[in-house]
Design goal:
Helix content of chain B: 55-70%
Strand content of chain C: 15-25%
CATH class of one domain in chain C: Alpha Beta
Helix content of chain C: 55-70%
Oligomer: heterotrimer
Distance between the termini of chain B: 63 Å
Strand content of chain B: under 5%
Chains: A alpha/beta (about 230), B mainly alpha (about 90), C alpha+beta (about 475)
Radius of gyration of chain B: 23 Å
Order of helices and strands of chain C: HHHEEEEEHHHEHEEHEEHHEE
CATH architecture of one domain in chain C: 2-Layer Sandwich
Order of helices and strands of chain B: HHEHHH
CATH topology of one domain in chain C: Heat Shock Protein 90
Number of helices of chain B: 5
Largest interface: B-C, 40 and 53 residues
Largest sheet of chain B: none
């Protein structure tokens, strides 16, 4: 992916850029909003990572508003120190797609970047998701593995759906909490882990290949290969 | 206080409402005279009930007042006598 | 405002006073009313006198003209003389002149001068037996050139008119005086009633937040203003305390975990330099500790944000039932994993007004605690129902519960019971729940789930007005 990082803090920028490059993404960096706007408008990028508070008159929100008004649809991930809910809503309303508060774990940033960067294969809405021999029918809300039906609760279905839509990518615990439970806080305990392990048991019972993998210090991933 | 002075000025507003242009030369009223007393007496003599009361005493009083110089009151009395002396009213 | 001369700038300064403007407005209205009253009265009395006289004169003139039409000049002369002879009141005035000015009949010696603006009407001074008097006269021009004057002696009427005019002018003056007096009194009264509020505001502006507006107990608008100001000042004081509290909390309670993290890293640094694995694990621990500090920090800020009350502006109406079901759903597997029986009884359609996200977090906190503290094989029960004026959410667990002393402290920011020190998560959970309850104008009540038994368990009850 080609990523543009607009961040005024030198250390954070270096840390993020290095990490993203190592993960295989080409990363450009702009130190303020004006330069960032110029670069975003003149070159194509797959993803923009913006700090919310930028010096020099053009802050993160202004930047996104301007880009959107120009018809630019590049996905945007906001980084910010501001944790208030209204700020999150404001950023999303301005045209942002996701929001990550500082300080963040790099794995979280990477997982969200890759989730935003994936383009849908086609514009037609999918009715079936498949990973290896696991199949999810979105219309009938059923899960089958190797042809055998697996009983899952509605919430587990949604959890599995989310993992499968991002098959091959890391999905963090925070992302699951947000997308499946609409829970935007950081629980201290490992509630998600228990859900995933229960789901895992249901999926892997009687099959030799585990599909849901734990990625250390990051989250979970569903993929065919072990 | 200034408002008190303002209030005191108010009666002055009344002046234009009172003042009426008066003519320079006073006009004399001719019926305020001894002569008119006489004219009224003559008319009385022609009235039907002149000799009856109360016309007769009113007329006598009226004449006396005119002779004494109280012309206007005399004229008024004589006029009343004339009214009393004329039955149609 | 005292008495004295009003200079130009002085006038402008004085007009800036709202009290004075109100007072002047009152004075102007009062004066206007008084003048209107006087004018109407004058028109109805003195004016009526004039109109009465004019009407009588016209009627007389009309009647005389009819006699002239019927019987010509002799009839007119006869009519005039008859009228004069019958005028007991001694008020009538007539004069008939022929075209060259010769007196033909009537009791005026000479014709009056023409009046203005209407030449037909005129006023004249009379001489009556040596005494002056006044007349009002009307002239009719006959077709043959003669002129007929018909009038009345209006001396007495004029005197009455003058009397009335003077009286009304005096009453207008009195009205003006009282208007001025009223304005002054009004302005003083306003300033006096406003004085407590303005004095308190001045005292506060100079830096001291403690004074409050003294109330007179009359319960009027100014007292209400004072009450509102006092409430506002109380709120400001509370908010400022809250800010101080946050700084205190952050300073005091975050120092410990930060110091601990630092100590561990320093310890790792002083260990054997070749042990890369140990260093690595120390760094990982350092990151975890920093994350923990961040979490505490964010929780403290969230509580402060909730306590400040600003979130209330974004309240919306929503159904609490799915929120509760979401929270239950989130923690059900955790309970199941520890063989804890989880019973729920959630009423349907619990509509209320508030912040959905905060309530989800509050209930999640309570369930988190319940699952954390209930031993294996225990039970948790969540009941949500609608009362008369509020929604009640009751969560009972089978853990050690809180001692009476602890229960009182439970709402304070960093409270953790001694026995809970080893379990993960900061003690901010209950503080947040309490803050959220208060934000929704409700309350959090803590009690024993099984009083008298061991373990006593904890029953946390949220009352949310709806």
């Amino acid at each position: 992916m080609r990523i543009l990082l607009v961040e005024d803090d030198v250390d954070v920028a270096r840390f993020v850029k290095k990490g993203l490059q190592e993960a295989g993404h080409t990363t450009e960096h702009a130190p303020n909003g004006r330069d960032g706007l110029f670069m975003a408008a003149s070159e194509p990028f797959d993803l923009l990572v913006l700090d919310r508070m930028l010096p020099g008159g053009v802050d993160g929100v202004r930047l996104v508003e301007t880009l959107r008004s120009q018809g630019n649809k590049t996905p945007v991930l906001f980084l910010t120190a501001m944790t208030a809910v209204d700020e999150r809503v404001r950023g999303l309303k301005a045209g942002g797609d996701d929001y990550l508060t500082k300080p963040f774990a790099f794995a979280e940033l990477l997982a969200r970047c890759e989730a935003l960067g994936r383009r849908p294969a086609s514009d037609a809405p999918t009715t079936r998701l498949r990973v290896a021999d696991l199949e999810l029918d979105l219309l009938s809300r059923t899960v089958t593995r190797a042809g055998k039906k697996i009983d899952v609760q509605p919430r587990e279905f949604r959890l599995l759906e989310h993992l499968m839509r991002h098959a091959g990518q890391v999905v963090t615990r925070t992302m699951l909490l947000e997308k499946v439970w609409d829970y935007h806080f950081d629980p201290q305990t490992n509630v998600i882990d228990v859900h995933v392990s229960r789901l895992r048991q249901k999926l892997d019972k009687g099959h030799d290949r585990p599909l849901i993998h734990t990625v250390r210090n990051a989250g979970y991933m569903i993929r065919a290969e072990p | 206080m200034n408002l008190v002075l303002l209030a005191a000025a108010f009666p002055l507003l009344a002046l234009p409402l009172r003042a009426e242009p008066a003519s320079a030369q006073p006009v004399r009223v001719t019926t305020d005279s001894a002569e008119y007393c006489g004219i009224l007496s003559e008319r009385l003599a022609l009235a039907p009930l002149a000799e009856a009361e109360p016309a007769r005493s009113l007329a006598a009083e009226g004449r006396r007042l005119c002779q004494d110089g109280h012309v206007r009151t005399g004229v008024a009395k004589l006029r009343r006598a004339l009214r009393a002396a004329n039955p149609t009213h | 405002m005292g008495s004295g001369t009003l200079s130009g700038s002085g006038v402008i300064h004085v007009l800036r006073s709202a009290g004075l403007r109100f007072a002047l407005l009152f004075a102007a209205l009062f004066l206007l009313a008084g003048l209107a009253f006087s004018a109407v009265l004058w028109w109805g009395t003195a004016g009526a006198l004039d109109r009465q006289t004019a009407a009588a004169i016209r009627a007389d003139a009309t009647a005389l003209m009819e006699r002239w039409h019927d019987g010509g000049r002799p009839a007119l002369i006869e009519a005039i003389e008859t009228r004069l002879a019958a005028d007991v009141e001694d008020q009538t005035l007539y004069l008939l002149l022929d075209r060259d000015g010769t007196r033909l009949a009537g009791n005026l010696e000479t014709p009056p001068a023409g009046g203005a603006p209407d030449p037909a009407w005129s006023s004249a001074t009379l001489e009556r037996d040596g005494e002056p008097s006044e007349a009002r006269l009307f002239r009719v021009d006959l077709p043959n050139g003669s002129q007929l004057f018909v009038g009345r002696d209006v001396a007495e009427k004029q005197r009455l008119r003058a009397l009335l005019t003077d009286a009304l002018a005096l009453s207008a003056a009195a009205a003006a005086f009282f208007a001025g007096l009223g304005a002054w009194v009004l302005r003083r009264a306003l300033s006096q009633r406003l004085a407590p509020a303005t004095q308190t505001a001045a005292a506060i502006a100079s830096g001291d937040l403690s004074p409050r507006v003294p109330l007179t107990g009359q319960g009027d608008e100014f007292d209400r203003l004072g009450e509102t100001m006092n409430t506002m000042l109380d709120r400001i004081a509370t908010l400022m305390e809250g800010v101080r509290g946050v700084s205190d909390a952050i300073a005091h309670d975050l120092r410990t975990p930060i110091a601990r993290a630092r100590a561990k890293l320093e310890e790792a640094l002083s260990g054997s330099p070749g042990d890369a694995a140990a260093l690595r694990s120390a760094i990982e621990q350092g990151i975890a500790d920093l994350d923990g500090v961040t979490r505490v920090f964010q929780a403290v800020l969230r509580i402060a944000e909730v306590e400040a009350g600003a979130r209330r502006a974004a309240f919306a109406t929503f159904d609490l039932t799915p929120v509760l079901e979401d929270a239950v759903d989130l923690y059900a597997p955790s309970a199941e994993a520890r063989q804890i029986a989880f019973e729920t009884e959630i009423a349907l359609g619990l509509m209320m007004r508030g912040d959905r996200d905060l309530l989800l977090q509050a209930v999640a906190n309570l369930l988190d605690n319940a699952v954390k503290f209930t031993p294996e094989g225990g039970s948790i029960r969540l009941v949500a129902r609608r009362g008369a004026r509020a929604i009640w959410v009751d969560i009972a667990d089978a853990g050690p519960g809180l001692s009476d002393a602890d229960r009182i402290r439970a709402g304070t920011r960093f409270f953790r019971t001694d026995s809970a020190r080893t379990t993960p998560g900061s003690g901010l959970g209950l503080s947040l729940v309490r803050a959220v309850a208060v934000l929704h104008r409700g309350e959090l009540h803590l009690a024993d789930a099984r009083p008298g038994e061991t373990p006593r368990g904890l029953r946390a009850t949220l009352r949310l007005p709806a």
